[in-house]
Amino acid sequence: FMAAPTLQQPSYLLANLKADATTKTLLQRCQDLVKIIDEYPAKELHLIFPWLVESVFGSLDGIIAGWNLRLLHSRSNEYNIVMEFLNPSGPMMNLVYKLQAEEYKYEIPVNYLPGPVKACIQQGVLPDCPLFHNKLQFPPAGLLTLNLALNPFEFFMFNFAYCLITPKCFPPGQHGSSTDSAYFVLVDNYLKYFLPSEGSVPPSPFSDSRGSVTAPSPRSSSVSFAGYGVHSPSLLKHHIFHQPSVNADPAAQEIWRSETLLQVRPLCNWLPFQEPFSPTEEHVLVVRLLVKHLHAFSNSLKPEQLSSSPSAHSHTHTSPLEEFKRVVVQRFVQQKLYLFLQHCFGHWPLDASFRAVLETWLSYIQPWRYTGEKTNPQQEQNRTVPDKWESFVQENLLMYTKLFQVFLNRTMRTDLVNAKNALMVFRVAKVFAQPNLADMIQKGEQLFLEPEHVLHHRQPRGYLTPSQGGSYLSSRQRVMTDMVFRVKSHVYALEGQDCQYKQMFGTELRAAVMKLIQIIAQAGHTAKRISDHSNEVAANNSFLSWFGMGSSDTNTTFPGAEQEESGECLKKTHEFLDRALENLCQIFKLNQGQLSQLISNLGSSQDDGNSKQLPDCIQGDNGLILTDLGRRQIISGLRRFEIHYQGDPELQPIRSYENALLVRLFYKISSLVNNRFGGHMNALCSRPDFLGRLGRHYLSEQETTTKLKQSPMTQRTLERNRQPRLSLRPLASYRTILLLLLFYVFGALLSFGPVSSTLLILTGGFLYGLMMTLFGDKLKTH
């Protein structure tokens, strides 16, 4: 632990910069800063550095927005200015290096660290991360005011990473960044610069005697864990700021920036800062960018360095950067990403935005996609996973098996009629159906299930001869023992010693897959039915709807459909689900006969008539209650509750076959008449004689009572007693207007004037009402 630093003197340079921040444009301020960084000594620059970092990235509490890098896009005038200033080799980074050459430290309150890390520190436990070694300091106020003293590079990277998760108040109509924002592009640039796939990290332009590190001793490729669930120490366990070395390897001296970048970014991006932890889509996209780049960085390891023979390393010098590539994914990504994805799988909404999380997962479990090799897209589809990736699959077994099971459970609660959700199921099935991958996963599970006595012959370091107290083991035994130990160590490290492992190819999960196949088949059938129904409605209404002769029902969409799920979208849904079924059968080795049997077991639930039945419910005290089966039936569009409009018919939304101007005009006229003569109408319709019946025909609805027997909310009957009234809304229909126009034209051809035609129309309407009043009851009976 370190003591609190002495108070700093006020800076006139800082005061001038703060004043310029309110009067000068961003371009002018950046130009001034470039000159200041070049001309002023580190002593003066040290005083402005914390303020400058806060001005760029915003304050840790989110009150100061900074330059809003997450909202700054390439179409903005300030984009190029910001990118040039913050470039990895730009003025801001030169300032960092200039301060790095001195012994300056900058404080970060422990309260801004992720919850788990903060809790450890406040309990007096130092997290197992070099970022915290010899960095903690606290003033006399007590533990709750602990600070972390970081060097300039660590301080800069911490604020840059924290910028992504800091809650900020964005302007109305604006949200977080996309993949073309300044923030996202800067993340990409920093990763490429400090984790280069080719060459080495460019050296700092300033000498840094305190930033050197002794090159780590060559690391044996064999696993050297002391026991299950125990990770090996950090690659640079003796961190550069703890052991200064004047005669350090220049290459090793530059590795610390790469490691710091990976310590800070996962720390801020993958660990929960508050409860509940709710990562955003923007957050996930940055994590995926990191995963993809680290795979490319790791896969750029030189072929001669891929040898797993321990003897190969004893005679060959491995550069720190190459050694870093070997261990970077397992050491800096695996555990944090596993917990991050598990949280997202369990808490993300059941909608299409989950695609970002899904693609992050699929990117991690397919490192062979980021080897830099150019392949034909057609060959890529049927490309066999090379055997060299078997060890990666085994050492990341839970990433494949456990997350697949979580995805399976999630999919069963998802609306697969939606084309975007169907696409996600297809994507996962396609990835796991890659030739050789399922066999690798199955072999990994078999290794994990090997009995414990297999490990009794394992030696902690190499394999000793009998004269050294060891025993001869065949090469095959050594390899098998090592593989078993790797898999078990991985599983126990992530899930604990007492975990209950469920096999991906076991009986329980296979039954769940069978159930998913049935759900997929149901959704595919529903999508086809919706598509056929929509096409029929469109064909029937394409011409007649203009005249009002089509369906007058506003709910012409088939149950289960959404606005984007029509036409081509539903065709895509059917295609995605069909291909997903094929891939699932390939993964779990189901033949066509088994698939046909599963689909045929759906029984009557596949019948078209079933869509008219109520969803599965149970009778409760207050009415019908949906069961889990009923919810799935509604989500899949197999069944629905009939919904009827229960409001005032005069106030229904204006339909496409009605003239909006006439609807509003006739409503005003009828409202005036009803208000003026409502009492007379009520008296007329209350009469029991023929005039009363005739009045009710023209002034009342045909049904005065509607029973809602199909609502899951209540069993009660709603009575709607409406007062007699005049309704002129039917005259606003284009169909009525067209018929009246045709009648007037026909009357004109017969030498009838407008007045005569109007009298004939009124007379015909009166006679029709008279006939319906006299014989309506008999017609209804028949």
Can you walk through the features of this model?
The strands form two sheets. A three-stranded antiparallel beta sheet has the order 1-3-2. Among the domains are: about 10-375, no CATH class; about 665-730, no CATH class; about 735-780. The chain is about 50% helix and about 0% strand. Helix 3 (about 40-55) crosses helix 5 (about 90-100) and helix 7 (about 150-165) packs parallel to helix 9 (about 250-270). Strand 4 (about 615-620) and strand 5 form a beta hairpin. With about 775 residues, the protein is mostly helical. Keywords: Membrane, Transmembrane, Transmembrane helix. Pfam families: mit_SMPDase. One of its GO terms (biological process) is sphingomyelin catabolic process. This is Sphingomyelin phosphodiesterase 4. It is found in: Membrane.
Sum this structure up briefly.
With 782 residues, the protein is mainly α.
Uncertain segments are: 1-8, 209-248, 308-315, 456-472, 546-563, 604-611, 703-721
Mind summarizing the main beta sheet? 3 strands, antiparallel
Question: Helix proportion of residues, in percent?
Answer: 40-55%
Q: Which strand order do you get reading across the main beta sheet?
A: 1-3-2
Number of helices: 28
- SS-derived structural category: mainly alpha
Task: Tally the beta strands.
Answer: 5
Distance between the termini: 96 Å
Could you tell me the mean pLDDT?
A: 78
What shape does the CA trace take? extended
Roughly what fraction of the amino acids lie in strands? under 5%
Radius of gyration over C-alpha positions, nearest whole angstrom: 36 Å
GO biological process, one term: sphingomyelin catabolic process
Subcellular location: Membrane
GO molecular function: sphingomyelin phosphodiesterase D activity
Main location: membrane
